[in-house]
Write a structure and sequence with these properties.
With 506 residues, this protein is α+β, with helices and mostly antiparallel strands. The protein has 18 helices and 24 strands. The termini are far apart. The mean pLDDT is 95.
Amino acid sequence: MSSEPLVIAVDSSTTSTKAIVVDADGRVLAQGKCDIEMSTPGIDKYEQDPRAWWSSTNTAVGQAVGALDASERARVAAMSCTIQRQSFALVDADGEPVRPGILWLDGRAPAQVRRLGTEELHAKTGFQPDVTPSIYKIAWLNDHEPDNVAKTAKVAGVHAYLAHAMTGRWVDSQAAADSLGLYDMARLDFDDDVLAMVGLRRDQLPELVEPGASLGAIDPTILRAWGLEQSIELIASCGDGQAAGLGCGAIGPDEAYLNMGTALVAGVHSPEYRYADVYRTDAAGLPDQYVLEIVQNSGAYLAGWFRSELGRPELKGAPDPDLDAAAQAVAPGCGGLVTLPYFNAVQSPYWNPIARGAIVGLAGVHGRPELYRSILEALSLEMARNLRGLQDDTKTPLTSVRVMGGGQRSPLWRQIMTDCIGVPLTACEQDEISAMGAGVLAMASTGVGSIEECAKRMAKLGDVSEPNADAVELYAELAEVQGQVYSGLEQIFEAQHAFAEKHPLG
C-alpha cells in the first residue's frame, strides 16, 4: 500500500463547488460536488449568499473524503482551495455577511469605472478599467449603499472567506486577493492610495501570505465531521484562472493555457511584472511570479445562452448534438456573417464596459445553424486576436496551448478555435483542472517536490487538434471584418448605453 500523501483540492466556482482527493501523480481518487445558487436582482447584477461558499465546500469535501477508505483518509496531508475571482463579500465584526456577495460577472458599475478608471490605476493594479475587478463594485456600494459599507469589518474574496470559515483567521493568498483590484501589483500587496480611493482601510482587508504557504490549521471539529482525525493545514492557493495554468503544467512563458469555460480565459506565466492593453496581470500561483491573462467574459455562457433561448426548450440549454451537426455542415465563415460576442461587455482587447453583442450581415438564408456557428467563430476569432496581441507584447512565441473546460468537449468548437488560433491545441485529460492546480499547491506543501515539479508531474495531457491551413487563412480574413465591425459600432454603443440608462429594461 502506498504511503505517499494525498491532498484535498477544492474549486469554488460560480455555479458549484467541486472537491477532489488527488495523489502525487495527479490521479483523482474521489470527488464531490455541491451546486451554488445565484440571484439576479436587476439588470447586470449577479449575487450569491457568501455562506453558500462555505456550506457548498463543506458538503463537497465531505462527499469526496467519504468515498475514501480508512487507509486513504489517513494519508490526507493538506488541503487547498482555488476560487472564483473578483467575487467578494462585506462581513461584519462577527464574520456575518452584511449583504449578498457580488460576483465577478456583475456589471453594475460602469459609471464608477468611468469615474475612477485611469491608465495610472491600470499600471499600478494590473487591471484595466472594467466592470470585472471588485474595486469598482466597492465604489458602487459606497455610492449606493453607504450604510452597508459602514457596517463592514472585512472585505473578503471567496478565498479569504473560506480560510476564515476553516481556520478562524482573516488571511488570504497574495494570488487570490489580487483580484479585488486593490493592489500595487508590482509589490503584491494592498495599496493605501487605492484603498482610500474607495473608502477602505488596510485593517478591513485580510493578512496576506504567499501561495503555497499555510493559512493555518483547519478546525479539528470540521475535520472530524469529514471523517479525518489528523491535523491538516489549509494551503494558500490562487484564483481559478491561475490554478488552471498550474493544473495543466503550463508554467513557462511560452506555454499557454486556454480555458473554454463560462468565460474564455487564457494566459502565460511571467517572472516579471508587466502590463498591457490586451491582457490583465494577475499574481501567479508560483510565488513572486505573474500571469498575463486574456479574459473574454462571454465564453461557453454565450453558446449556452443561444441553446437556452433559441434552441430546443426541452434541453434547457444543454449541449445539442443535432445543432452541432447542423452547424458543422455550415461553411466556415457563414458566408460573411459576423458576430460581436460582447453579451457581457468586452474585456480583452478593448475593455469597454458598455459594449454589447451584435450580429451583422443577417440574410434570409441564415438560420439557427448559421447563427450558432457564427457565435462559436466570433468567440474563437477574438481569442486568436488576443493571443496574437499577447505574443506581440511579450516577444515570446507560443510553443504550446493547453485547452480545458466544457467548451473543448465540442469537436466543432474545438476545431474552430484551433483554426482561428492557427496553433495546435493539446487537451487536458482531467475534468477539474482548476481544482488540480489547487492540488499542485497542496501537494508541494507536503515535501514531495516544488510547485513547478508537482505541476509537471500531476498534469495529464491528451489528444492534439491540428489547424487546417485553408481555414486558418479564411478566419484571418474574417477577423479583419470583425475588427472593423467593432470600430464601426463603438460610438453607437455609447448612444445605446445612454438610451438604456434613460429607458431601462427592468
